[in-house]
Amino acid sequence: MSNTRIHALTAAMPLFLLPVGVSVLPGCSVLGIVASAAERVPAAHKLRDVKTLVLVDDPNDRLPDPMLREVVARHVGYQLQQHGVLSQTIVDPDRLRDLADQLGDRYANTAMDALARHLDAEQVIHIQIETLLLRATNGLLNPNATVSVTVVDHTGQRLFPSPGPLHDPGDPTPGQRLAIEAGPPRYADTDRTAQATLTRELAEKIGLDVGRLFFKHQATKRGE
User: Fold this and answer.
1) 101 vs 66, 106, 109, 125, 127, CA distance in Å?
2) Structural domain of residue 53, as residue ranges?
3) How many structural domains is the chain composed of?
4) pLDDT tens for each residue of 116-164
5) 91 close to 160: Cβ distance less than 8 angstroms
6) 183 in a domain, yes or no?
7) Does any domain span residue 22?
8) What is the predicted pLDDT for the residue at 12?
């Protein structure tokens, strides 16, 4: 995967917010987990316990509010620190905004590892929003998203997911794709406030499920 960023608003940090559940689906470059609720799901990758930058990219503006990218990042940081994965600093979003202002038009095309070095981070968790839908075809509200997750170090070396044995180093490889649902389908509510709440719940769920890639956790049913 290329480290050059296409278009993005970057977000990061530890902090608050509550957990929900994880649903990860099989497929090409997608982590497949089929487990009963009683089983423990192992971490897909062991993160280094170093200063970490969390980048949330939404190149097609799937999230209706840019601040939801920060919600995603905060949830990732919260999960990783609460579960003892990271004891070191997670880069504060204020520093990222300052850096974006300094770089101006160059920011969108700055490689992830270069951003990490600017911010003295040794590791980057990159999350790209690929799809996001609130409404199912039958009219029910069914908040779901697909994201791609990659981890690189400050030199640009990809740490997760590992390339396959026949991987061409010159070929970009997709990150780990996760299919995420924020609860079961429900009857549609035309109230904008209700739909904004559902979108925020989905952003929180994205952060939770991405965080769970990196520590052992209780298996949950899809949509929980």
Assistant:
1) 16, 10, 14, 21, 21
2) 48-164+173-214
3) 1
4) 999 999 999 999 999 998 876 677 788 899 999 999 999 999 999 987 6
5) no
6) yes
7) no
8) 43
Total Cβ atoms within 10 A of residue 29: 12
pLDDT tens figures, 13-46 = 433 333 334 444 433 444 444 444 468 899 999 9
Please report, for the domain that includes residue 64, its CATH number. 3.40.50.10610
Query: How many whole angstroms separate alpha carbon 181 and alpha carbon 131?
Result: 12
Helices (H), the chain: 67-82, 93-103, 112-118, 192-212
Place of tokens 């990659």: 150
Instruction: Judge contact between 149 and 212, C-beta under 8 A.
Output: no
Q: What is the number of other CB atoms lying within 10 angstroms of the CB of residue 89?
A: 17
Model confidence band, residue 223 (pLDDT cutoffs 50, 70, 90): low
Mean pLDDT, rounded, of the chain: 80
Structure tokens at 128: 């790209």
Specify if 210 maps to a domain.
yes
Residue at 23 is within a domain? no
Alpha-carbon Rg for the chain in angstroms: 17
pLDDT of residue 167: 52
H or E segment and range at residue 135: strand 123-135
pTM of the model as a whole? 0.79
SS3 call for 134: strand
Closest alpha carbon to 12 in 56, 45, 60? 56
Structure tokens at 2: 């290329």
